[in-house]
Description:
The protein is 37% helix and 15% strand. The protein is α/β, with parallel strands linked by helices. The chain has one domain (17-306): Alpha-Beta Barrel (TIM Barrel). Helix 3 (106-120) links the parallel strand 6 (89-94) and strand 7 (125-130). The relative contact order is 0.14.
Amino acid sequence: MDDIVLSPDPRPLGKSALQVSPMAWGMWRFAGDDVAAARRRVEAALAAGITFFDTADIYGPDNDEPFGASEALLGRVFADSPGLRDRIVLASKGGIRMGVPYDSSPAYLRAAVEASLTRLGVDHIDLWQVHRPDMLAHPADVAATLDALVAEGKIGTVGVSNHTPAQTRALARHLTSALASTQPEFSPLATAPLFDGTLDGAMEHRLGVMAWSPLGQGRLGEGDPRPGRKVAEDSRIVAVKTALAAHGQRHGVGVAAAAYAWIMAHPAGIIPIVGSQNEGRIAESADAYKVRFTRAEWYAILVASLGEDLP
């Protein structure tokens, strides 16, 4: 059988009109006050062929910064280099409130979108995602609010993050504007979307899939997974890293690139969200396109993750 070959060419995000790169850059740890340094990270992602940027209003407190800090920093970069905005497909998320924790009420969703637009210094967010489901919000009310924001031109299209397949279907059922994407955690260490219907549902309904934490919360990359946090490498992590390292070596790339490639090889066209804030590691993400998989090689990594043979 032919190898699975990856392409760096842009493609549609689900049913939407957005054309996105096959990899995205995530801005959870996009922090600090140095606008020039922040701009260099943005430019490193663009140089690596990444034009799809994913942020959220909640990004900030995990870095000991205020709510909205990551968006505000990107807004300062845009103000410093106005041409950058036009080169980027901009995605953000909202619906998490400090201490609540989730709020998808119509008033809050509208306020969240408008606050993000202000921090980013833009008049339009290409993809806006409900960050986590609010169990006290009816999907019909959520959909009506998001449809209105699309009609007003404040957001281009709608996605969801951390939603179950059923929650995703419920929102899609009430949306007039088509749902564009879903964003689950997915990596060679977090494989639940292969089995819980997330990826099958995305392919059934033509949703784009964005994978957050594609390196298993840093366990498959370099350095600590989160600032100030150490994670012991158990036998499962070692087995997956060993399998990825061996496969990557055959193609002249590192573990991280092999992990990104493993994710992108799935037929759902999954977009791994590169989370590194290191310019060199951002550049190395493009190595993923050098990697090929046979079916046997792809399944071998899954078996390493599951710790048992497939039936």
